[in-house]
Automatic annotation (TrEMBL):
Protein biosynthesis is among the record's keywords: no
The organism of origin for this protein: Actinomyces glycerinitolerans
Biochemical pathway: Amino-acid biosynthesis; L-serine biosynthesis; L-serine from 3-phospho-D-glycerate: step 1/3
Protein name per its UniProtKB record: D-3-phosphoglycerate dehydrogenase
Annotated keywords: NAD, Oxidoreductase
Key word Oxidoreductase present: yes
Residue ranges of domain ACT in the record: 323-393
Entry EC number(s): 1.1.1.399, 1.1.1.95
Biological function: Catalyzes the reversible oxidation of 3-phospho-D-glycerate to 3-phosphonooxypyruvate, the first step of the phosphorylated L-serine biosynthesis pathway. Also catalyzes the reversible oxidation of 2-hydroxyglutarate to 2-oxoglutarate.
UniProt family annotation: Belongs to the D-isomer specific 2-hydroxyacid dehydrogenase family.
Length: 395
């Protein structure tokens, strides 16, 4: 039996999320063809053809740099992500990174793993060898945080609890995140100030053109020679060649990141983890649940919540009406043309919502009576309409 919606998953997505797609109406899986929506984690979609059937893409996670967002916007396809759903998991790994760096934990564990002999010999080797792993304590040191979004705020607040001084920089901090940021976090006047002052510096910005190579040769040169750089955001935010050069010259103390590469994974002053930031059961569940709910909201009701390229458009369904979901360019007279078209058919509009973001707008129109393919053809023919769908009556 053909089901109403088809979802193609391009990564392993938590069952706690997938089970929210009602079985009787959704076909879900990696082999689904002609999907209405794609559900991904880190799968790279830039070079993959996105089928014409796709109405929406959801990223069960934070970063959408693996998705051609601009091209999807041009096609009128919303790209959803799951803000904050994995922030605690990343915060915990960043804290682990702090301790890994301050107490030389990975080389120390490697040393212990390599010990040979009987217990007495091991005990002697431990006492002789441990001095090479002497670390430093965190209270009184300064943590610099670049990017105070869902993750940066949690890292900053938790670091205060460990006795660190925290200095942060985020010119675009949201009101929501500012509310959650402890007043004890000092606001830096510039990014450079953070680089200069930090004993440990951590970056929590998205990978976009303006953040690519943000940790550059020039900025690393501002850092203390003993400073440690943490990168649990994206590899490309850091100029790896510049980091390796500074580590080799002794002008940077260490680099801990979530992104192994040929440049860093074997470097004696680098610790890299295999992109584990969001890999907890809790984060995987949170992200999947949120992403599935976002997709269902859009497919079933035309609602847009947490899209990175679309305006928020949330309008409760009007019982008994059919809904037109129109994605259009944000130009004058779109709503006028849509409502005229409906009125000329002698149909009443029970409810209407028009929301815009940049060059794009979403128009939801709840209409009394039938809506056939003809009205959709007419809507799609309007200059500036990118897509139009009609949804069955709400219960
Ligand atoms: N390692 C992992 O597994 C993992 C997991 C989750 C997220 N991430 C990465 O971390 C990034 C941040 O996640 P988030 O949930 O905190 O996102 P978020 O959108 O809540 O926060 C990002 C913050 O960065 C700020 N920002 C952007 N450009 C900046 C700049 N040039 N200087 C200073 N601040 C700037 C924004 O204003 C925003 O407040 C994601 O985009 C993703 O790439 C990695
Ligand atoms: O941006 C994110 O949310 C993280 O990088 C997590 O990626 P993952 O879902 O592939 O673990």
């Amino acid at each position: 039996m053909t089901k109403q919606f088809r979802i193609q998953t391009l990564n392993a997505i938590s069952g706690a999320g997938l089970s929210r797609f009602p079985d009787d109406r959704y076909d879900v899986g990696g082999n689904v063809t002609d999907p209405d929506a794609l559900l991904v984690r880190s799968a790279k979609l830039h070079d993959a053809p996105i089928p014409d059937s796709v109405l929406a893409i959801a990223r069960a996670g934070a970063g959408t740099n693996n998705i051609p967002v601009d091209a999807m916007t041009q096609r009128g396809i919303p790209v959803f992500n799951t803000p904050g759903a994995n922030a605690n998991a990343v915060k915990e790994l960043v804290l682990a990174g702090l301790f890994i760096a301050s107490r030389n934990l990975i080389p120390a564990a490697r040393f212990a793993h390599e010990l040979t002999g009987d217990d007495a010999e091991i005990a002697r080797a431990v006492e002789a060898g441990k001095k090479q792993f002497v670390g430093f304590e965190l209270p009184g040191r300064t943590l610099g945080v670049i990017g105070l979004g869902a993750i940066g705020v949690q890292v900053a607040n938790a670091a205060l609890g460990l006795g660190l001084n925290v200095v942060g920089f985020d010119p675009g901090i949201s009101v929501e995140h500012a509310w959650h940021l402890s007043a004890e976090v000092e606001r830096a006047e510039s990014m450079e100030e953070v680089f200069r002052r930090a004993d440990i510096l951590t970056v929590h910005v998205p990978l976009i053109e303006s953040t690519r190579g943000l940790v550059s040769t020039q900025r690393i040169a501002l850092m203390k020679e003993t400073a440690v750089l943490l990168n649990f955001a994206r590899a490309e935010i850091v100029d790896e060649a510049a980091v390796v050069a500074a580590l080799d010259e002794g002008t940077l103390g260490g680099y801990v990141c979530d992104f192994p590469s040929t440049a860093v994974h074997k470097h004696p002053k680098c610790i890299s983890l295999p992109h584990l930031g969001a890999s907890t059961k809790e984060a995987e569940r949170n992200c999947a649940v949120m992403a599935v709910d976002e997709l269902r909201g859009f497919l079933e009701d035309g609602q847009v919540h947490n899209a990175v390229n679309f305006p928020e458009a949330v309008l409760p369904r009007e019982p008994g009406t059919r809904r037109l979901v129109i994605v259009n360019q944000n130009v004058p007279n779109m709503v006028g043309q849509v409502s005229t078209l409906v009125a000329e058919r002698g149909q009443n509009i029970a409810n209407l919502l028009n929301r815009s973001r940049g060059d794009l707008a979403v128009t939801l129109v709840d209409v009394e009576g039938e809506l056939g393919e003809d009205v959709l053809e007419q809507l799609r023919a309007i200059d500036g309409v990118l897509s139009a769908r009609a949804l069955e009556p709400a219960a």
